[in-house]
Protein: 4-carboxymuconolactone decarboxylase
Organism: Rhizobium leguminosarum bv. trifolii
Amino acid sequence: MGDAYVDAALGKATDFTWPMQQLVTEYCWDNIWNRPGLDRRGRSILNLGMISVLNRPHELKGHVRGAINNGLTKEEIQEIFLQVAIYAGVPAGIDSFRNAQEVFNEMGI
């Protein structure tokens, strides 16, 4: 998702949220994302599908931004969300498209 995203997340952590932020930082962003078995593009593709199905719009927006940073195109993201619509339901696909469009607008793409 980029250094700015990570720095902002760490900077917003409170005494209450710090244990969760530490868990996410160490296990998600470091241990899993840096494993050699999949490249970052592949991990982004998987995450977009899974987070869409889980209906987590805030996380989805962050991962759309990360997917772009990891080299995915808008067209590839479009295909992922069409796949989501067929296998997880049209409402999940529609929400994913809406959330991605917000990110594209923010990013000027």
